[in-house]
Amino acid sequence: MENIQSIKQRFEIIGNDVKLNRAIEKAIQVAPTDISVLVTGESGVGKESIPKIIHSLSHRKHAKYIAVNCGAIPEGTIDSELFGHEKGAFTGATSTRSGYFEVADGGTIFLDEVGELPLTTQVRLLRVLENGEFLKVGSSQVQKTDVRIVAATNIQMFEAIKKEKFREDLYYRLSTVEINIPPLRERKEDIHLLFRKFASDFGRKYKMPTIRLTDDAIQLLLKYRWPGNIRQLRNIAEQVSVLEEGRTISGATLQGYLPNASSTNLPAVIGGEKREGDFGTEREILYKVLFDMKGDLNDLKKLTLELLKNNDTEKVQEENENLIRKIYGEDGEEMPSEERTPLEVLHLPEPHVEQQVSPTFLEDKYHFAEEIEEEETLSLQEKEIELIKKSLERNRGKRKAAANELGISERTLYRKIKQYDL
Description:
By secondary structure, the protein is α/β, with parallel strands linked by helices. The chain has helices spanning 4-11, 18-30, 49-56, 78-83, 100-103, 119-131, 157-162, 168-174, 188-205, 215-223, 229-243, 251-255, 282-310, 313-328, 359-378, 380-394, 399-406, 410-420, and strands at residues 37-40, 65-69, 84-85, 97-98, 108-112, 133-135, 142-144, 148-153, 177-180, 212-213, 248-249.
């Protein structure tokens, strides 16, 4: 078995970070087996090196090695790409085609960005992992394949499982052994080493002297967060090598090539569980306000029905005070000063009853009130509009007088007029 140093030289892996060495060590250990491996890590950290190491050290090394970028294949054709299709299986299928799992029989398939696979394809892949069987698109004949699967992803798999974008059973089948590649910002000692390697490579490629960094440029290089990891570092080394005339690069010069370099020391936002009462979006805040308003409106309905039913002023006064305290607080501190009015019940026109009323009529009126209670509950908005219209007509359009009669502030009356387009 080859040691870590010889593997690094063979696959041009630069760095001496402990976590990187551990990842390579795990790849060497699992290579002789047929265990499925899941390589995790951020985009640009070099995950594609691990499946190559595994394949080259396995007993399948003389068979095919196929790398498939799952995120780059359209959803409508990925099943055909992976498993093949029969002639006439879909529009454009003019001939029978072998998929990657058939072509790579006896070898290794590297599924890069496996988290981007559609759920229907995930079901097919699970079947291959469980018993080595698959079906071509448009075929009912089961075919067998002997393929070693190494997958890679840069997404948080448990988050994808929670959102039902990735099958949990497939995740556990793929991640029999999980190998994590650390991000470049956690490999401080390797950053300058990698930059020097890339600068040397581009110097030879473009036939020009190799660029060198001053001390302040090196410090800037180490402090930067490198969101694009090794891929970004390589691109910047190439840009500086080609665009700068001078071969000694200062920190001020290098800073011009690093996006958001001035904010490298700011704290990062770390995802976590939302606490109770913590609303992440304006939509959630709006929903909460609407639900609170709905509750207040229901309480107002009850007050109105109490007045319509028996005109029990004292009881309604008490309920009204409780409602206002609930909305504006015990001391009314949240209530705008211009809207503060005495705690008065909503004044409705006094019901006119004739002096001589038969008991039968009163009984019928009482039952009628009970029968319309449910209707009034369902059409309170119409009742409110009707009351506002009547009050405005009675007061000849004077809003202040109408507001006083209704027991609400002038601002609230104005808002309701605008709301109901009166």
